[in-house]
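Issue 218. Parser rejects a valid record. Input:
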Amino acid sequence: MLYEYVYPKSLQHFVKNPTHETLKELLLNNTGETDFLDFKTKWPYFSKVAKHILAIANSGGGCIIVGVSQNDEGAVSLSGLSEDDFLDKADIDNKLEHLLPKYLKYRVEDFQFIRDEHPSLKNKRFQVLLIEYDPKYVPYTSVVQRGEIRYGAIYMRQGTKSLEATNERLVEIILRKVQSGGSSMNDYSLKDHLSQLKELYDERQTNHQNDFGNFITELIERKKERIRKLLDILSEN
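Output the parser choked on:
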């Protein structure tokens, strides 16, 4: 369910069952970066990592593999990570903690092919960020203004890039949410609804004179109506 949109199958197989063998299959037979897969030669600034995480989480889940590079022609190099570039998972979590929404789920897995006989992988180290897709919480919005990420922005993957979502991509998120079963109004607490309403108001302040601003205004009115209904339910209880 959490990775039903991920493709190709080798990537979906890996994110569902992240082992040395499934990663080996993915790395040796990969088709390059996609909406669900991003490569990094080594760990970049973590604000950039957070932007990619948000985009992949909104696009259907997937992963970021660190220790792999892809050039402009699409050729992939399995360079691996040096000992100095191989980071402690706790340190990665600490750096990302305040850059992402609290409901966004991810984890870091370490892979070392010390004994592997394949020449492309032997003695290579990789780290992988596995990012879940959860229709209950999408779209995830940026919670900070730092580096490459803008507060309140919604990012999605577009091929090899993580970009702010267009109106068309926002509609895609909503349709995918509905098709996945989404979430009912009662799945969120009043605090969750109010937090989302505040984010929508903040977003409208920076986008109030275009079609996207009109779209946000419509979402605000729908969110306000949901809060009114939720308050009626709470008062009945």
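Fixed in the parser; the record now loads. The chain has a mean pLDDT of 87.
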